[in-house]
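Quick entry between incubations.
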Amino acid sequence: MSGNTLADHLAIPYPNIGMAIVEKQPETSAPSATPLTAVLHDWLTTVDHKKIGIMYILMALLFLVLAGVQALIMRCQLWWAGNDIVGPDTFNQMFTMHGTTMVFFAGMPILAGIANYVVPLQLGARDMAFPRLNALGLWATLLGGLLTYFSFIAGSPPAIGWFAYAPLTQRNFNMGPGVDYWILGLLVTGIGSVTGAINLVVTVVCLRAPGMYLRRLPLYTWMAFWANLQILAVLPPLTAALIMLLFDRTFGTHFFKPDSGGSAYLWQHLFWFFGHPEVYVLILPAFGMISEIIPVFSRKVIFGYEFVALSTVAIAFIAFGVWAHHMFTVGMPRALDMYFSAASLLIAIPTGVKIFNWLATMWGGKLWLASPMLFVVGFMSMFVLGGLTGIMLAVAPIDFQVSDTYFVVGHFHWVLIGGTLFGVFAALHFWYPKATGRMLNERLARWQFWLLLIGFFLTFGPMHISGMLGMPRRIFTYPADRGWEFWNQLSTIGALIQAPSYLIFVWNVLWSLKHGDIAGDDPWNAWTLEWATTSPPPSYNFETIPTVQSRRPLWDQKHPEDPDWKHEE
Amino acid sequence: MNHASDSLAHHEGNLDPVKAGMITFLASESAFFGTLIMVYLFNLGTAFEPEREPYTPGKMLDLPLALPGTICLLLSSVTVHYAAKMLAQKKDAAFRLLWLATITLGIVFLGGTAVEWRDMIHAGFNISTNLFGSSYFTLVGFHAAHVTVGIILLTLVLALSRRTRAIHRHEVFAEVVSWYWHFVDGVWVVVFSVVYVFGR
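Done. Structure below.
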């Protein structure tokens, strides 16, 4: 083995990571460039996983705001029965772009960004396995987003829902170019997601620090690893389906045209074979973030590491066999209904295992309700509620009643916001000091948390009720005599309470960059390797590659008198 | 150790990142082709009315015409295997010969597909004719596209092998390209069985 210092690494002529370190030098020393150009050039050409991670996150936040504005437009339209601020076409375009953006250009990139930043640090690596491929992934994802949004300029954003059910997507129903841009955008983003997933998986498999056996992986890295394995398995089927759709629209093929032998039902199978594991792609990393934060803020080792780790594997596998619970009302054979109900219910077991392990970690711990932990508590309470409505929906007879109503909208926002978004905010508050060297402002964080929690509750709680009262999804308005107006107005008020919480977060991020308290290397007194280096870490991450002897390498360093490895094996 | 990955961190195990990357990529490719094959089977099972339809698998697909290309592609898996072996043993001339044979066999396969498609299109059968045409040309076309990419990669490796010293870790790249080629062959075995043998 070669030496560990930076000089040794620079001395190695070839590749992957060496390049990341060497490449930066000419840029920073270019004398003719203005400072702004130099900074821009540095960021746009970087292959440093940390900068790429930050750019993923910034891109995701930008799209989050765009999709949030679309949501507000929909909520305002639904304020009164019979309202017509925006017409049906615009409304359809809004919910299509809102869903597409949230899943592909906000949710996945923000998780890819955090994984990009944190995973190599937690592994004790100097970068991802393929730094240039990493940059490609970022720019492909952004290009995909821009292509999809180009449909606004091209005249007609797609009005097909994020699931793009056939045959609504065919030329005779959607003549404009919007659907084509939507397809191309998702195809290009898919390239970004798949290359990113390959990179992350290989990084975890190949670039662990000495002693970092798989059984010692930090749980966040472990769960991000499984989420990315899922991306590898389900993004290519979506790509294949999108290509067939593109061929239908462009070359006159017949895949999803029922009138010439094709099948709309096939599209639903293909889409949800991607679409359901996709929700685990969005939630597993959040589970990982929670598993990382709870022990630190409870001052205890995670309870049942093996069970938390293996339940992730169970979820990842079962997730491949549940997709048709999105299709109960299509009219499948009864045997399929029963199978998909049972398989979907089964997922509640490994998820429950996680919840109980987290609770057991907190139990008897010395709880510290700093902002990351606050969001974790929000996550746990809200995600359990969303999980319960998920169990209801997994039962086919209940689904027959409430499918395609606002009950479903309430359910999946409850898990995506109450789960993924709260987890992401917990993670951003947890790792912001590492990335910037400064703490986020606690007072602002608390305002953000409570506005988000209350606004979220008020937005999506009433949707369960309007859904039970029979209000269908994807309608731009509704008659006054159905008793839906009150619940819709509550939802809209909730959305208006939520909106400032995001602005407070953006303000906090910007303000703290200059004025936040100095964080130091390890502000939370945590135990994983990212806290062993400086804040922010140098481009080479670690001056000396650490050697790992337990699941909490930094604890071992801090407590040589009572290291974890004495107790673990 | 002169492996690139060692410059990053000292990793557990001996798997080279480039090799691991190719394995992961091929896994995602399997999901892609798996989907196309499932769609082909789904359409085969539901949509054809052989009596009234002039363009059906039975009428359009010609096993004797597809067989020579298939044999060439299978043979090329053998040649690329031994080529990689020769490279590992530093027998450069043998490596180049076998590698060139692989490329030639790949081109012959593509030529066979081209002849087959020309006849079909002349007979009025193309991707938009009916559901079978859509499924067939999409599946076989994406496979052919992968063969084409494979030939380009093989050619690149061969071209760069003349300057072996300049190309760090030439053997690793040759090896993963040979894996890609094996994969494309393996996919064809499945596609051929589904389309030409069982699906007619």
